[in-house]
Amino acid sequence: xxxxxxxxxxxxxxNLVHYMESNPYGVEIMVRMPDLxxxxxxxxxxxxxIVISPGPSHxxxxxxVIDFVSRHWGHVPILGICLxxxxxxxxxxGPVIRGARPIHGHTYDISHDGRGLFEGVGMPLxxxxxxxxxxxxxxxxxxITAESDDGVNMAIQHVKYPIYxxxxxxEAILSTDGRKQxxxxxxxxxxx
Length: 192
Fold this sequence. Notes:
GO terms for molecular function: anthranilate synthase activity. This is Para-aminobenzoate synthetase component 2. Keywords: Glutamine amidotransferase. Pfam families: GATase (PF00117). By secondary structure, this protein is α/β, with parallel strands linked by helices. It has a single domain (2-191), classed as Rossmann fold, CATH 3.40.50.880. The protein starts with a strand and ends with a helix. The chain has 5 helices and 9 strands; from the N terminus they run E-H-E-H-E-H-E-H-E-E-E-E-E-H. The protein has helices at residues 13-21, 42-45, 63-72, 83-91, 178-191, and strands spanning 2-6, 28-32, 47-52, 78-81, 96-112, 125-135, 142-148, 153-158, 163-166. Helix content is 24%, strand content 34%.
């Protein structure tokens, strides 16, 4: 059993991979760049979930990843992190806009609903943010499950499918309970 990590050309991807590889379930992490997704078969590879990594650019500029994720929407659990979070929000009809100010390497406390990724996770949760864009307004397919103390959408969950997004970096050393959230996603994928 494997989790597919889509590497959006980001320096944080292998920190995520390292954390996820230490999972207690024996699930492997398979990394692919967007230009190699055309050759990936979830069934043939034994892929039980997809993680969309952080990365540069606006999510609307990543049509290759959007197309791949769209084909698997509702079939396997999906987790988007930072750019991946914004991509899911965009795919669900929510606007992604430039934030009031760029936030890179700053910690914030967030409140969450304790469900899904946040099961067994502390409250408030301290997270590390690296982003210039934010998920604004509402989405027809997602509910907001966590917000920062400055009122920014920090996490989402699909209203029907096991699809989740987090704006922050759970793998950052200053983020608390990051490994627990990533393991929660793997557990969700195993149980789907």
